[in-house]
Design a protein that fits this description.
It contains eleven helices and two strands, in the order ααααββααααααα. By secondary structure, the protein is an all-alpha fold. It has one domain: ABC transporter involved in vitamin B12 uptake, BtuC (Orthogonal Bundle), CATH 1.10.3470.
């Protein structure tokens, strides 16, 4: 195995990490800040991928697909939270059952509309060709995914840590009753947070489709990876999701390349060790 092998696998790990960040960040924020376990989150990622496949095949516009999918998945999140999930806040078991059911409904709708066929898109325009990078020929679209992951992470960190709405979200997560007493409309803040989380999942589906084929029935597998990312990094933390995504993306990539027969062991054993040493995750707050 030459240096090119290690370079390519490392870049593959980074591109997978960027995609996992886009999948996991909404789930982590909703679960960590709103205490709402949304197991239907990755179903919206798959829905975004299938919607973008239809839009791009008919219009040829990748940008239009992102805009439409963002609007639709954001609206779906808004409706789910406003008319259904808000009834179960503070009832984790009910939320797990409800969101699992929602995930199954979404998967059945996708199966009925698209016949369960796997779909994949070519990267758009100039990103459809490999480029020379770090001494290897590497797909330019995967480098774009890495760049977009970095942009998403920095943008979300700035919103949560440096803006007024971010302060309100964190205040509601720390102590909902005190936040309400200060005049913060927690219901509205959480509604916006949940809608943005589902929007990010849908946009992630659009961005991820040219990188990897998508098919119905994989929502639970993706949700499992998102859970690993969030448990390793810590819920409700952008920094935690960044490091959790890097951990899962790089370990899983090298595990599948070097030890394909025990790739799950190479991923879940280090995760188990981390959680034994830090049950709250690398950057999560200690449980009270």
């Amino acid at each position: 195995m030459g240096i090119s092998f290690w370079t390519i696998q490392f870049l593959n790990g980074l591109s997978l990490s960027a995609l996992l960040f886009m999948i996991s960040i909404g789930f982590s924020l909703v679960c960590g800040l709103m205490k709402l376990v949304n197991l239907s989150h990755t179903a919206l990622y798959i829905a975004g991928a299938y919607m973008s496949f239809t839009i791009i095949n008919r219009t040829g516009s990748f940008l239009l697909a992102i805009i439409v999918v963002a609007a639709v998945t954001g609206l779906i999140g808004f409706l789910l939270e406003k008319f259904l999930l808000y009834r179960f806040h503070g009832k984790p078991l009910n939320l797990v059952l409800m969101t699992t059911g929602i995930m199954m409904v979404f998967e059945d709708i996708i199966l009925a509309v698209f016949d369960g066929l796997p779909v994949r898109l070519r990267p758009p325009g100039m990103f459809n060709y490999p480029v020379d990078f770090l001494g290897v020929r590497y797909p330019s679209y995967r480098l774009l995914v890495i760049g977009l992951g970095i942009v998403f992470a920095i943008t979300l960190w700035i919103i949560l840590e440096k803006t007024k709405i971010g302060a309100k979200i964190r205040a509601g997560a720390d102590n909902e009753e005190i936040a309400k007493s200060l005049g913060i409309n927690i219901k509205k803040i959480f509604l916006i947070t949940f809608s943005c989380a589902t929007l990010l999942a849908g946009v992630g589906g659009v961005i991820g489709l040219p990188k990897a084929a998508m098919q119905s029935g994989v929502a639970m597998e993706l949700q499992m990876l998102a859970l690993v990312v969030c448990m390793v990094g810590g819920l409700g933390s952008v920094k935690g999701v960044v490091f959790g995504s890097l951990f899962v993306g790089i370990v899983d990539t090298f595990g599948r390349a070097l030890f394909p027969s025990i790739s799950y062991f190479t991923l879940f054993m280090p995760m188990a060790i981390i959680l034994v040493l830090r049950p709250q995750g690398l950057f999560g707050r200690a449980l009270e």
